[in-house]
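Justification of resources, computational component.

The compute hours requested in this renewal are based largely on the per-chain cost of generating structure records like the one below. Each record pairs the submitted sequence with a full structure-token output. That output is archived, and it is also reused by downstream analysis tasks.
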Amino acid sequence: NNQLKVTLLGDASKLNATLKTASGRLKSFGKSTTAVGKSLQTRLALPLALAGGAAIKMATDFDKSMTKIKSLVGIAGDEVDRMGVGVKAMAKEFAISSADAADALFFVTSAGLRGKDAMEALEGSMKASAIGMGEAKTIAQLTSAAMNAYGSDTLNASDATDVLTAAIREGSIESDELASVMGGVLPVASNMGIAFDQVGAAFAAMSRTGTPAAQAATQLNSIMMGIMKPTQTAADAMEEMGLSSAGLRQQIKDEGLLSVLNTLKEGANQNARAFETAFGNVRALKGEI
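The structure output for this chain reads:
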């Protein structure tokens, strides 16, 4: 029994020593785990907090844009709410923030587009933005201006976006450059029966010769107005170049705007004075158009 007692005590002694060692390791492991936990919490919580903050801001911006559509554009709240569902779905489809999509919709509705036309214009703008053609709201502004100028029955959102995409891709021009000036050209072009793709082609061609978008817009407006409503002095100057407003209008109808710009470029090269008299302060067209 004594032997047994000693053995048990001895065993207990070893066990206590083992447990103390194990306890120390557990405490050490616990401290290590706590440290790792704190580190992970810092590493994960901060990005998650930032992501959460960004999400909250995005949601707030989305709500602001949708509220502006209700209050400033004057569309009924329930209709705006229905549009909001579509906006979020498209934003997800094209990997664009819902706030940016809502901002683009504000431009579309501000331009007067409603219902199906508005949502089609938004979708086309978001598609163009998704392939790198610029911000969705900028494309939306251009698309809406074109559809307003030509009428949605004549120019739908898909065709308008295709023309804009081609003009940006083929020319040396950015969407924000076009957005600030193109709208001023479209009413005159539409009134003259010049198709939207011809206007886009003209901007692209002129940009490739180094003409800035704003200057191109000024030149195109002056040329179109000079052809549409020439003064007697301008008509006489065109006659000196062997041209007439009636002939140029017919050429636009038959061959397009680019053909007329090339004809005028040749006329300017032959008689710069007459060209300037006919078309005001328009600088002579240059390069291959």
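The chain is about 80% helix and 0% strand. Confidence is low (pLDDT under 50) at residues 1-27.
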